[in-house]
């Protein structure tokens, strides 16, 4: 394998061991020590600097939980590892022999380490030769990624260190509820406000985050694109456009100026429900701040027009002259633990490692050389996450699915339909450490090790590559995902290409990423440990060269576009894919609560978290509740064109009267959501669909 890197000779053991690691959950990747089942926060990691949220504090409970899987299951029956892997490999071979390579699909996750994400993508392309691979990151930040690529030529969640937020003078956060989704993030916003900076939050709900804000824009779900166009219209009209910056660092302003001219404030108020005076105030706050940031979360992004919505917010940031400055910029507040790294190493349908495009001949040649295969043997781009899940078991679709690090039976849009697709497969193989709803439907369940029992790297929301050390011994019986991939590869005749130790995989990843946008080749486990993380891109500087320092602020001097300039792209507002009508008169939006994580597979098995947040609820305004005859604690049924679900009513004046909110941590919310996809990012419309709500007197939980 032609790997030649001038890395310093390894000084650590092959698998770095030690108590200093990072949280298993979100993209903040709070630093923590894990020792003897006890968790203490680390002070040396800037993202959390000594803080953790409730999920982080209790994360060790699942390591020793009785619900932990330690034996492979074949059709529900405990079997030895060899039997489970032999069965899976034999079925894969038979299905591919009969239907071709694309009969087997792979689905990954943004919680997987860089090493796992890399090896999974390689496994799909080399051992299976399938084009049918994608991952749950499509459901997460893909709209922001598509918009950032279009505007800046590169997508790195926050293109600045998180501590820069504390140095800003104003922040607009559109559709993010960080007080619940990454609580230590609030410290950075508080640092900004303590210096006199001001916070504007756009959310249909007065969330704990919106309560911290100086100004809350209570936007109608699905209308952020109009809001951003309106803010830009006002910013230009009131002289806040930074013409010097626009001339020096961007292209496309004139077209965008023309395109927003029709988005006068009163028109935007009619669409968004945000009063003109508040829009003007928001623009004043941003426009008058010496340093300002525009940030987006899933509330603005998870729409069938998410890419254009984020583009409109980026246009606003560019017009104000923000991206590239210190303490200024645009950023996407992503997501899963390795939501950033997970999109760089090739588990996405159209990608190869290093954030390379799979349809780029030079990229194919480079990666094929690292993998020791012919570029012509690498498959082309496959289906996006929802399209892949929706094709399973259908004529012409994959017959088998290998799933690592996702629970789509709960988290996919229109999940009832996806559960039927999963049931129609000839083979479903799931690697997990608990019996998630998806694993419960699998033919083969492979019990895997957990975060604190493994080593590997994670790239946090700032683009900082971090090291997870092995802090605890795995239980007998569990195997790492890398070992599982190797075990399957051996049985498919590719064992020698699939190392199972993380450092070897990382060194191969470095070589595969070298020269790509997300270049990790200058990053080593030793450097990460010594520097508490290294920002990509960080190319290898060759023998004898001074090491590259990493890139905390990649847009400081130029943008990675062909002409070095950021691109403003004109976009137009359009209504939600499914608007309200007589039959389905309220907007349903979905999201998160503090105590639970994602599909809940992990946190619903941790007692303090289920005590804090025991069940699915439906948040609705007192006016709507009164009209429906619903009181707090009553069961209500929510119906959409796709299904119906029941939850406990939470009556609260903090939500818009035309909107109800459900968390998706339990089965229910996604029986309702609309899988309409963004044309560019293929992001589903999780954040808005039309629903009907009624009192439910029969006590039935999920109908
Ligand atoms: N506790 C907890 N923390 C998490 C996670 C978790 O599951 N639980 N998951 C992690 C992951 S993977 C992610 S992606 C992040 C997500 O982090 P966030 O983006 O902060 O989370 P959400 O709750 O999905 O959505 C944020 C807000 O969007 C609002 N919203 C809904 N519709 C709209 C709309 O149309 N416009 C606007 N402007 N706002 C809208 C919702 O009311 C909600 O308050 O959190 C990470 N952290
Ligand atoms: N309605 C609605 N739906 C949504 C969203 C929303 O806002 N609203 N948000 C979307 C977003 S942003 C996201 S990110 C997705 C997330 O939703 P999912 O993709 O379902 O994510 P998780 O629930 O984290 O599932 C991870 C699964 O893998 C297991 N696991 C964790 N780590 C590992 C590992 O290292 N290896 C292996 N083999 N398994 C592991 C866990 O036990 C769990 O069963 O949900 C999306 N769905
Ligand atoms: S904020 Fe995120 S990374 Fe930090 S402790 Fe909570 S879940 Fe873990
Ligand atoms: Mo996410």
UniProtKB/TrEMBL annotation:
<dbReference type="InterPro" id="IPR006963">
    <property type="entry name" value="Mopterin_OxRdtase_4Fe-4S_dom"/>
</dbReference>
<dbReference type="InterPro" id="IPR006657">
    <property type="entry name" value="MoPterin_dinucl-bd_dom"/>
</dbReference>
<dbReference type="InterPro" id="IPR009010">
    <property type="entry name" value="Asp_de-COase-like_dom_sf"/>
</dbReference>
<dbReference type="InterPro" id="IPR006656">
    <property type="entry name" value="Mopterin_OxRdtase"/>
</dbReference>
<dbReference type="Pfam" id="PF00384">
    <property type="entry name" value="Molybdopterin"/>
</dbReference>
<dbReference type="Pfam" id="PF01568">
    <property type="entry name" value="Molydop_binding"/>
</dbReference>
<dbReference type="Pfam" id="PF04879">
    <property type="entry name" value="Molybdop_Fe4S4"/>
</dbReference>
<keyword id="KW-0408">Iron</keyword>
<keyword id="KW-0411">Iron-sulfur</keyword>
<protein>
    <submittedName>
        <fullName>Molybdopterin oxidoreductase</fullName>
    </submittedName>
</protein>
<dbReference type="InterPro" id="IPR050123">
    <property type="entry name" value="Prok_molybdopt-oxidoreductase"/>
</dbReference>
<keyword id="KW-0004">4Fe-4S</keyword>
<feature type="domain" description="4Fe-4S Mo/W bis-MGD-type">
    <location>
        <begin position="16"/>
        <end position="65"/>
    </location>
</feature>
<keyword id="KW-0479">Metal-binding</keyword>
């Amino acid at each position: 394998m032609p790997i030649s890197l001038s890395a310093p000779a390894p000084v650590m053991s092959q698998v770095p061991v030690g108590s200093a690691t990072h949280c298993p959950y979100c993209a903040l990747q709070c630093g923590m020590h894990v020792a003897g089942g006890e968790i203490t926060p680390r002070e040396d990691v800037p993202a959390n600097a000594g803080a953790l949220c409730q999920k982080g504090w209790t994360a060790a409970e699942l390591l020793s939980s009785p619900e932990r899987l330690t034996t492979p299951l074949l059709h529900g029956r405990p079997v030895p590892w060899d039997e489970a892997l032999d069965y899976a490999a034999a079925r894969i071979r038979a299905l591919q022999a009969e239907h071709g390579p694309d009969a087997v699909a792979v689905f990954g996750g943004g919680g997987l380490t860089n090493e796992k994400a890399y090896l999974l993508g390689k496994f799909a392309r080399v051992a299976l030769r399938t084009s049918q691979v994608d991952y749950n990151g499509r459901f997460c930040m893909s709209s922001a990624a598509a918009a950032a690529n279009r505007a800046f030529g590169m997508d790195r969640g926050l293109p600045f260190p998180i501590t820069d937020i504390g140095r800003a003078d104003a922040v607009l956060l559109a559709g993010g509820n960080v007080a619940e989704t990454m609580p230590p993030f609030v410290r950075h916003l508080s640092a900004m406000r303590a210096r006199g900076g001001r916070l504007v939050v756009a959310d249909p709900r007065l969330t704990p985050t919106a309560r911290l804000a100086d100004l809350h824009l209570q936007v109608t779900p699905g209308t952020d694109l109009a809001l951003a166009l309106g803010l830009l219209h006002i910013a230009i009209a009131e002289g806040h456009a930074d013409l010097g910056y626009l001339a020096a660092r961007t292209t496309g302003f004139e077209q965008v100026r023309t395109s927003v001219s029709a988005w006068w404030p009163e028109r935007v108020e009619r669409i968004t429900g945000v009063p003109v005076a508040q829009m003007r105030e928001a623009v004043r706050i941003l426009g008058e701040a010496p340093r300002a940031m525009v940030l987006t979360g899933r509330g603005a992004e998870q729409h069938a027009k998410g890419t254009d919505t984020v583009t409109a917010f980026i246009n606003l940031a560019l017009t104000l002259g923000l991206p590239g400055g210190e303490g200024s910029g645009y950023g996407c507040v992503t997501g899963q633990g390795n939501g950033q790294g997970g999109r760089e190493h090739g588990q996405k349908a159209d990608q190869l490692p290093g954030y390379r495009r799979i349809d780029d001949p030079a990229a194919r040649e480079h990666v094929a050389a690292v993998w020791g295969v012919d570029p012509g043997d690498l498959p082309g781009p496959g289906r996006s996450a929802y399209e892949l899940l929706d094709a399973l078991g259908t004529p012409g679709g994959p017959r088998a699915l290998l799933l690592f690090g996702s629970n789509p039976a709960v988290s996919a849009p229109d999940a009832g339909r996806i559960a039927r697709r999963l049931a129609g497969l000839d083979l479903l193989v799931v690697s997990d450490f608990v019996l998630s709803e998806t694993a419960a439907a699998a033919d083969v369940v492979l019990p895997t090790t957990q975060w604190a029992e493994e080593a590997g790297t994670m790239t946090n929301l700032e683009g900082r590559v971090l090291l997870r050390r092995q802090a605890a011994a795995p239980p007998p019986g569990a195997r790492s995902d890398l070992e599982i991939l190797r075990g399957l590869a051996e049985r498919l005749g590719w064992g020698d290409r699939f190392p199972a130790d993380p450092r070897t995989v990382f060194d191969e990843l470095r070589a595969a990423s070298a020269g790509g946008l997300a270049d990790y080749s200058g990053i080593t486990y030793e450097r990460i440990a010594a520097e508490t993380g290294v920002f990509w891109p960080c190319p290898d500087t060759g023998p004898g060269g001074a090491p590259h320092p990493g890139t905390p602020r990649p847009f400081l001097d130029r943008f990675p576009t062909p002409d070095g300039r950021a691109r403003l792209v004109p976009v137009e507002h359009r209504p939600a894919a499914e608007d309200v009508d007589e039959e389905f008169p309220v907007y349903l939006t979905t999201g998160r609560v503090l105590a639970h994580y994602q599909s809940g597979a992990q946190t619903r098995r941790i007692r303090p978290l289920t005590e804090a947040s025991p069940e699915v609820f439906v948040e609705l305004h007192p006016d709507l509740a009164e009209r429906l005859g619903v009181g707090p604690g009553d069961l209500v049924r929510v119906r959409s064109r796709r299904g119906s679900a029941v939850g406990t009513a939470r009556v609260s004046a903090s939500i818009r009267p035309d909107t109800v909110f459900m968390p998706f941590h339990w089965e229910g919310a996604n029986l309702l959501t609309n899988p309409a996809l963004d044309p560019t990012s293929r992001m589903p419309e999780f954040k808005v669909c039309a629903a009907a709500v009624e009192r439910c007197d029969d006590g039935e939980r999920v109908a």
